[in-house]
Amino acid sequence: MSEQTDRPFHSGFVALVGRPSVGKSTLLNACVGEKVAITSPVAQTTRRRMRAVVNTDDAQLIIVDTPGLHKPKDALGKELNKAALGELADVDVAAFLIDATRPVGRGDEWVAKHVEASKAGYKLLVITKADIASPEQVMQQLEAARALMRFDDELVVSASEGFNVDSFVHLVSEHLPEGPRWFPEDMACDATDEELISEYIREKVLLNCRQEVPHSVAVVCDELTWAKDGHGSIHATILVERPGQKAIVIGKGGQMIKKIGIEARKDIEYLFGSKVYLDLEVRVQPQWRRDQSEIRRLGYDAGQ
Question: Do residues 196 and 29 lie in contact, with contact meaning Cβ atoms separated by under 8 Å?
């Protein structure tokens, strides 16, 4: 039970925005204290807008992890950008993340224009990945970011090391409006069980097949059932665009799909706290990223 404080209760929405692979999902997980968003070195890892809930004694933050803003090459890319920009339209805080190890460029300038134009009452610059950057790199990034737009404040973090994560939560909490606790305290995110399962499986595909099928893969959890003994049974379909990609995901003698299944099952069992049986199928769906109806069916459209 939360301790009572004299400070009025504050609650609101916080959007994490930035270019692909700047560490948005890693920061989200660090704030929550558990894994709710998948991460990988592959750009466009985040496809679904996810709202994670962070509770303190006198505040509740609803942190929105958005897809990385990028130059779209297909219908899926356009929907991901639309989803990310849509979140900026109705948040209390916009946190603009910039990777400490990658030069600030035109992509950051484009993101900055949208952040600056947003109605968010508090705009925070967050320099990420401080653990793998030199102090000189961090200072250069701060100076370059300051030239993009005016921020209300700035913070340097390392989500993977936990550096300044609590400071991020505290700083943002101070700039949320007074309001109620919108979500139950035991709720970590607003994703369904099926959505989380699909994302955990897709993460393992990305991590194990990085160069071969990064953006062409999608995952659908077709069935989730629970037996009386508490064990779960899951059937999921991994979609790829070409037969060659299907062969890569399955692997020689089925070794790759077996590895993906074992790794995904561990995450899923940790999520549910029980044993699960995971059955994976790989199917070719040509050019699904250009098919608006397929994008909508998979839940990757901006209107989800």
Answer: no
